[in-house]
Amino acid sequence: MAIAERELEAPPNAHWHTLDVDESIALLQSDADQGITNQEVETRFQRYGANELVAKIGRSSLQIFIDQFTNIMLIMLMAVAVVSAILDIRDHEFPKDAIAISSIVLLNGILGYMQETNAEKALAALKRMSSPKVRVIRDGGVIEIDGKNLVPGDIMLLEAGVQVAADGRLLDEQNLQVRESALTGEAEAVNKEAKLILEEDAGLGDRLNCVYQGTEVVQGRAKVLVTKTGMQTELGKIAALIQNVETEDTPLQQRMTQLGNVLVTGSLVLVGLVVVGGMLNKGDFGELLKTSLSMAVAVVPEGLPAVVTVTLALGTQRMVRRNALIRRLPAVETLGSVTTICSDKTGTLTQNKMVVQGIRTGLHSLQVTGDGYAPIGEFTIDGVPEKPTFAVNNIPEVQQLLMACVFCNDAILQQKNGEWIIIGDPTEGALIVLASKGGCDAAEWQHRMPRVFEVPFSSERKRMSVLVQGEHGGNVLFCKGSPELTLECCTHIQIGDRIDPIADLQRQQVLAQNNELASRGLRVLGFAYRNFPEIPEGGLNESDESNLIWVGLVGMLDAPRPEVREAVKRCREAGIRPVMITGDHQLTAKAIAEDLGIAQLGDRVLTGRELEKMSATDLDREVQEVSVYARVSPEHKLRIVQSLQRQHQFVAMTGDGVNDAPALKQADIGIAMGITGTDVSKEASDMILLDDNFATIVAATEEGRVVYTNIRRFIKYILGSNIGEVITIATAPLIGLTVPLSPLQILWMNLVTDGLPALALAVEPAEPNVMKKPPVDPRENIFARGMGAYMVRIGIILAIITIVLMVWAHGFTNTHFNETYVKERWATMVFTTLCLAQMGHAIAIRSNTQLTIELNPMTNLYVWGSVIMTTVLQLVLIYVEPFRRFFGTHLITPTELAICFGFSALMFVWIELEKLVIRWWLWQRQT
């Protein structure tokens, strides 16, 4: 029966790493040499679809724009605009109030739309990774096709430099190494082995007999059976996770919604009381309706959304100067609420550069200092620092070890634009750097002693050997590899100048040294050599890797960034808990975490396998204690973040790989690396670290706290003023007066009189102890910590001052002027007093305890500038004819203006007196 006529039985969720080569081929009804037929390709393409990622349909731009007008405050303003227009048309007046209100509603809608239409590009970035060109065997021939045309059962050919286009089971390989850091988080390229059969619960990073879409072949070649394509691949699962993550409102957005609900509810209750009370007193319904409209406009802080947006934008500019690029405006304030930072290890906490940290020989224990690939560092021999000269003070066995590092090596160390870089494998690069630190110039010695033959590394032997010409005749074989397997090939050991037969006790010592280095999370390599008087006939082969002389061990690590320790310390001082989540080995993760202070000695490390077996309840219990997670998959990272959020933690997640993208999007703040980060991680994030520096997160958190403090400050300022306006408007008809303010004048106060000083308050500098306080509770009520009481208290005081002025001004103008001008004249004094009183409020609110005279005016000149500018603009509305006519104000005399200034100054005096009372109370508590 032809392949095309048979039913394909392989389940899409088969555990391919648990099957051998023949079982895998049989399940997918393929042929390792012939591939599948073109007819079968069409059948499978119809069944499985294109090998590409599929996006879910989201909201259209029009729907996003319409959704902006579902905000309860905007709905109320729209209703006010409609009623106002009807009243003006009835009275044959131009509906300027309705037009002004509608313009504000539209402006706020546009601002919200601009914030929300940051297009989702993470999936597009994933697609770029998933569809390269690929060589396959079909109908017995080798052809090149687009990756999107691959189907399960295809035979894919890989070689160094290509990107893997689909998930697959290795059929055979030659020295294959694949870089999977973008998918698994591991720094090192992984050595793959086709013959392995693994357990079902093997983690993604441990599946050495499989390759995955989006990873890159570093060296070697392979033949691969395509097992999964499109959304069934591991990359496709990540795409699904990204799309399934629901974005929640930030704390600021939640608080603003809460604020809107309170204001609208309070406004409707107050309007109801005024209308009902007025009707009971047989008041005019038209006047009562106008009063209600004015109150509704007064209660809504129309300028607040614009002020918040500008404040967040200013915060982003300050953060860019500190190497943090904010992609979504609300993330600026959100940073101030972070309680937990979940950080990837590779490239985030570490340098993503292997660095040798220790050497062990038969006689000596050496520690090596230095960061990155710069060939600068010191050797400490048995606890005594040594000058880094060639062979480290000519210790013979160390000399031989450094020579082995140089010759068993294909990497190149270069300096480019002042930075040291490695061309080739990072592990071999670390060995070249080690030799350079010891004064051994790799290029020079490789020229003086050229390589003759090589036995390349293989996954079976786990060794690499090279034969080089001796400088003074003869030849030398150098070998590096797995310490255990290399040691098995040794019959002798070098101790100083002596070459002694290796005893069982010495073998045990070497294995103990290996365990000691490995327990610190280091990757350990063993080195040996052998002299050859003549070049072996037929070249070098595996049988020549015998009778070797053992010289020592080298332990290396992807070293932590030097500035991270201090950053972790500052996080803890600020009440922020750092957590490491990595795909790397648990010993390595534990060593790095303990070194950085993320974990303490003896703390538990939770692995992906253990996490896989945990229920959500069990995980919720563990996340409160565990600070290090190792060998985790993308799904695990997502579960950890979600579990922390269920514990009411406010989570920032840092990362640079594709595997981090779902967790970055799920986290309250997703933070991607700007230099080493993939496009996918950047598009899924809220913030990008331009310098890949973990310490930048701390600086950004500080800015976030400053932004939130300033937002609270100007909300207190704006709403305190609005409450005063509402009380004043509501009181006027109750004491027999008409409403002193038109909706247009109220809009002027809310947008200009409130807006300009509020923007100035937004750039108030940070308090000295801002990073010594615990994070702000993200569930904190907008009115928490005395803010609600302050706004009500200040609103009442402002209203009392204005009402007293209103009663006096009404009686004064009624006595001294014609009836035609009574209302406009005293109403203009009320309007002016309200505006000027808010200027005193803006000056005084800069500090809760310090008197204005004690503050340095130079620290925020914008406040003084905004107060002067707003005062001038208010005078323009009174004394410039076109503006006076448009805003419905009236000329007032210099004496009346002075009276307005005098009454408004009482607001400033009151707040300053409050500060003195607060200081006295604090002093009493301390004594």
What is this structure's SSE topology?
Blueprint (H helix, E strand, L loop, with lengths): L20 H7 L10 H11 L12 H7 L4 H19 L5 H21 L5 H9 L2 E6 L2 E6 L8 E5 L7 E13 L1 H4 L5 E2 L18 E2 L4 E13 L5 H11 L6 H30 L4 H15 L4 H18 L2 E3 L4 H4 L5 E4 L1 H5 E11 L4 E4 L10 E3 L2 E3 L4 H4 L1 H12 L4 E5 L2 E5 L2 H12 L4 H7 L2 E5 L7 E7 L5 E7 L1 H6 L1 E6 L2 E4 L2 H16 L3 E10 L15 E13 L3 H10 L3 E5 L4 H11 L8 E3 H5 L3 H7 L5 E3 L3 H13 L4 E5 L5 H6 L2 E5 L5 H6 L2 E3 L4 H41 L8 H11 L1 H7 L25 H30 L5 H23 L16 H19 L1 H7 L6 H33 L1
Parallel strand pairs: 9-23, 9-26, 19-22, 23-25, 24-25, 26-27, 27-28
Antiparallel strand pairs: 1-2, 1-3, 3-7, 4-5, 4-6, 4-7, 8-28, 10-11, 10-22, 11-12, 12-13, 14-15, 16-17, 17-18, 18-21, 19-20, 21-22
Helix pairs in contact: 4-5, 4-10, 6-8, 9-10, 9-27, 10-27, 10-28, 11-27, 15-16, 20-27, 27-29, 27-30, 27-31, 29-32, 30-31, 30-34, 31-32, 31-34, 32-33
GO cellular component, one term: plasma membrane
Membrane topology: Multi-pass membrane protein
EC number: 3.6.3.8
User: Strand count, sense and closure of the main sheet?
Assistant: 11 strands, mixed
CATH architecture of the largest domain: Up-down Bundle
Q: What is the name of the CATH class of the largest domain?
A: Mainly Alpha
Number of domains: 4
Structural class: alpha+beta
| Shape annotation | elongated
GO molecular function: ATP binding; ATP hydrolysis activity; metal ion binding; P-type calcium transporter activity
Membrane topology: Multi-pass membrane protein
Main location: membrane
Family: Belongs to the cation transport ATPase (P-type) (TC 3.A.3) family. Type IIA subfamily.
